[in-house]
Amino acid sequence: MNPIPETPLKIGALAQASVRMLRFYEKMGLLTPARNAAGYRLYRAADADLVRKVRLLNQAGVPLKDLALMRDCLRDAPQHFCPDLRRLLLAQQAAIAQQIVELQQSQDLLTALLEQ
Question: pLDDT class for 78, splitting at 50, 70, 90?
Fold first, then answer.
């Protein structure tokens, strides 16, 4: 059992994330909230930051299973202390850059077609 954080946040305080998603992150090992005497999950402010990072990276295409393996690296900054995470992020950054190029080409084509 984790110690209760000094300034605990209940599950509703992480409003940008659904309760279901937070519980899924906990099941995957991404989050390990403390519990109060009544069994309510208590989160730290750092957990809210971690949830934000996980959501953004997952939306960018990084699999949750990979993020779960590197959970401790996501809590630390800067990321150069975790070479595996750094490689993963660099690869995803390159993939996103390629997607941006392709989306820009699609947008240019749509604009050209609509101007005819």
Answer: low
Phi, psi of 33 (to 5 degrees): -70, 150
Task: Report pTM.
Answer: 0.70
Query: Alpha helix locations (H) across 29-70?
Result: 45-59, 64-69
Q: What is the pLDDT of residue 79?
A: 61
96 close to 60: Cβ distance less than 8 angstroms: yes
Q: Name the CA radius of gyration of the chain, rounded.
A: 19
Cα 76 to Cα 96: distance, rounded to the nearest angstrom: 23
What pairing do the DSSP bridges indicate for beta strands 41-43 and 9-10? antiparallel
- Using CA atoms, how far apart are residues 34 and 27, in angstroms rounded to an integer? 14
